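note to self — DONT lose this again. spent like an hour looking for the file last time. sequence + predicted structure for the chain T wanted, 100 res
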Amino acid sequence: MTAVWWGNCLGCGRGPRTIYQYLAVEQTLFSCELGRYTAFGIAAQKRVPDSWRQIAFVPDICTNAQQAQRLAQLCTQGQLEPIHLMDVIEDFVADPCSWP
């Protein structure tokens, strides 16, 4: 797994008051039907003194890096409570083209 960081952090919600940050995470996976493929998951991290601690991870939500990055960015900017992450991902997977 590799965390994928995109662009700079100005205005991305990762300032001093940010409690949660979300990252698009690149994965190489295998399926009997598809063989080896690249997918992206979303990792949720919580600020702890002087660092971040991963508190949730949802693998294999899409194969489009830009869509995964945008979802992670929106979750960070909105300071999504991690308890709602699965609901947001279910909405995203149902209709990824409707996300800004």
